[in-house]
Amino acid sequence: MLVNFLNPFGLEKADATKRTLLDSLEFVGSRATRHRRLSPLEQENYPGEEWSLLEIWVLRRTGK
Fold it and tell me: Which residues contact 7 (CB under 8 A, 6 or more apart)?
């Protein structure tokens, strides 16, 4: 299974989703890449951030 997370938005919700996924699936690997530059308004809301990152997780079924 591939799952995409867009950072830095909704970090608490993304963390909760990750925990839920890890309850029933095995983590295989991940990769983060630059998705796009943040708008000036987004940079005001997320100080110190310049880029939106696309985090891609690879998961597989477990033997549970």
Answer: 14, 32, 52, 53, 54, 55
Q: Is there a contact between 17 and 64 (Cβ–Cβ < 8 Å)?
A: no
Other CB atoms within 10 Å distance of the CB of residue 34: 10
Domain boundaries, the chain: 2-61
Alpha carbon distance 27, 19 (integer Å): 11
Q: Strands 51-61, 25-37: parallel, antiparallel or unpaired by DSSP?
A: antiparallel
Contacts of 64 (CB under 8 A, 6+ apart): 24
Q: What is the pTM of this model?
A: 0.77
User: 3-34 pLDDT, tens per residue?
Assistant: 999 998 888 999 999 999 999 999 999 999 99
